[in-house]
Amino acid sequence: MIHIMGYIKSDALRETGFVVLDQYDQEADPKEWLDIEYVDWKSSGDTRFAPLASAFGEIECNGFWNHKPPRTDKDGVFIPSQVEKAPNLTRRAQEPGANIGRCRVIELQPNTYADALYNLHQDDNNRLNPDGTGWVVRGFFNLTDDKDSYFVLRENRTDPSVEYRIALPAGAQLIVDTQRLWHAAAHYGSEPRYCLITSWTSGPELDAYIEKYHGTSQVPNVEVPQDVLDAGQAEQSRRIAARAAALAARGQADQTAMSEA
Fold it and tell me: pLDDT tens across 144-192, in order?
């Protein structure tokens, strides 16, 4: 655990901004994500979300700072009707013992590497987070067996020189500083991808959890053909330029604002 710029951060995330934990035995659990209630909420791609914990225990996904009183992504309230349908998912989110903010399952429709690059975003986890407290990061637990899909992480949105591509089989578990890293999933296949996403506050509890499950960033990148990488990068540039031109035509500036998702 380290203190940087007034916040408590996990040393395990210092070098790369992410760790991969031991793979979870997902097949042993029921498919609870099919039973819970979803709401339309767009993030990076064609998505819906099913909240397990929200600002006040209601089935909604808004950032905690958009509520009254506004606050940072901490002290989420679990939703009884959702918890009843998804006790295993709730248990997994609560296992670290760290403070939880938003907790929800994302449903992502199939897309491509080029889509993922265009959808790369950073999260606004720490808006209103007081100095001297734990930095909010996110856990990603892949629920479906998406063997051809992978999570894309970059230090810089448009620079491919530092790009991590993390495999997403069922039971894959990542913890990511998503306010630092640009991230999105390339999801190939014909069915939606489901993933449990939990906002956790950094501190000794999360550090112990990372150690318990052997968190490491020393994992191989998913291999992707060079022509796919090149085409994806070119398509990202094309789409960003097209968006900027469209906004300029309307007299608006292009902003890469942080996502509230």
Answer: 999 999 999 999 999 999 999 999 999 999 999 999 999 999 999 999 9
Q: CB under 8 Å to 12, separation ≥6 — which residues?
A: 19, 207, 210, 211, 215
In tens, the pLDDT along 86-121 reads 999 999 999 999 999 999 999 999 999 999 999 999
Query: What are the DSSP E strand ranges found in the chain?
Result: 2-4, 7-9, 18-20, 39-40, 47-54, 77-78, 100-108, 136-142, 146-154, 163-168, 173-176, 182-186, 193-201
242: burial class by Cβ within 10 Å (0-12, 13-18, 19+)? exposed
Q: Which residue has the tokens 């051809």?
A: 148
197 and 104 Cβ atoms separated by less than 8 Å: yes
Structure tokens at 175: 């913890």
Full set of structural domains in the chain with CATH: 2-249 (2.60.120.330)
β-strand partners of 139: 175, 198
What residues contact residue 45 under an 8 Å CB cut-off, 6+ apart?
Answer: 108, 109, 111, 115, 116, 119, 184, 185, 187
Q: If DSSP states are collapsed to H, E and C, what string results for 83-108?
A: HHHCHHHHHHHHCCCCCEEEEEEEEE
Q: What is the DSSP letter of 259?
A: B
Query: Do the beta carbons of residue 51 and residue 61 sit within 8 Å?
Result: yes
Contact (Cβ atoms closer than 8 angstroms) between residue 77 and residue 60: no
